[in-house]
Write a structure and sequence with these properties.
The structure holds 2 protein chains of 2 kinds. By secondary structure, chain A is an all-beta fold. Chain A is built from no helices and 11 strands. The chains are: A mainly beta, B mainly beta.
């Protein structure tokens, strides 16, 4: 089954840092042709787009809620997406999903499929 | 930001009956040059990631049963399940991809009556 495999996550104190990874090597696609994205879901809540990165990695986009604190990056040679999260807040607690964007590889106008299995980040003292 | 508002928050439908979910955007997400609506629908079952059902408001993904239909244009959209099956119990989300930030509706929980 073709899928995205996520790692990272866990419990962290407010103000701390964490890095999430998303391995797309199991997908039979040329990864640089696709935008990759992070979407999160707070416990019992809906979906919130967090960040997207263009196919080459030259363009990044962020939700206002994480701008300046989170950094998205990708390594197409390793077929891996990353999310470096810093200055974490209690309200960042969520399941974080990575996903493949199906729009143009250079823009943020994306819908998403497939999604990773999700990784839980808990920010708590 | 484009706000996506779904209704109802939840609905209970008998097996074999119709379920209708509404999604309204705070501004038009119809791109006039290509006459396409920048709207997707997802299904999320408990403990699972979302699964894409429709893009462009009405283009059904491969493998999605044809009892699911996406419709609407401009600011008003609908996801219809024509004959609810037990495996359709889930939360359904709409998402606009017309402009950044990408935004989702709050979700509609579909249950069996």
């Amino acid at each position: 089954e073709e899928r995205l495999v996520q790692s990272g996550g866990g419990r962290i104190h407010p103000g701390g840092s964490l890095r999430l990874s998303c391995d797309a090597s199991g997908l039979g696609i040329t990864l640089r042709q696709y935008v990759l994205a992070w979407v999160r879901q707070a416990p019992g809540k809906g979906l919130e787009w967090v960040s997207s990165i263009s196919g080459t990695g030259s363009q990044t986009y962020y939700a206002d809620s994480v701008k300046g604190r989170f950094a998205v990056s990708r390594d197409n040679s390793k077929k891996t997406l990353y999310l470096q999260m810093s200055t974490l807040r209690v309200e960042d607690t969520a399941v974080y999903y990575c996903a493949i964007g199906l729009g143009d590889s250079t823009t943020v106008n994306d819908w998403f499929d497939p999604w990773g299995q999700g990784t839980l980040v808990i920010v708590s003292s | 930001d484009i706000v996506m508002t779904q209704s109802p928050d939840s609905l209970a439908v008998s097996l074999g009956e119709r379920a209708t979910i509404n999604c309204k955007s705070s501004q038009s997400i119809l791109y006039s040059p290509n006459n396409k609506n920048f709207l997707a629908w997802y299904q999320q079952k408990p403990g699972q990631p979302p699964m894409l059902l429709f893009s462009w408001a009405s283009t059904r993904e491969s493998g999605v049963p044809d009892r699911f239909t996406g419709s609407g244009s401009g600011t008003d959209f609908t996801l219809t399940i024509s004959s609810l099956q037990a495996e359709d119990v889930a939360v359904y989300y709409c998402q606009q991809y017309y402009s950044s930030p990408l935004t989702f509706g709050g979700g509609t929980k579909v249950e069996i009556k």
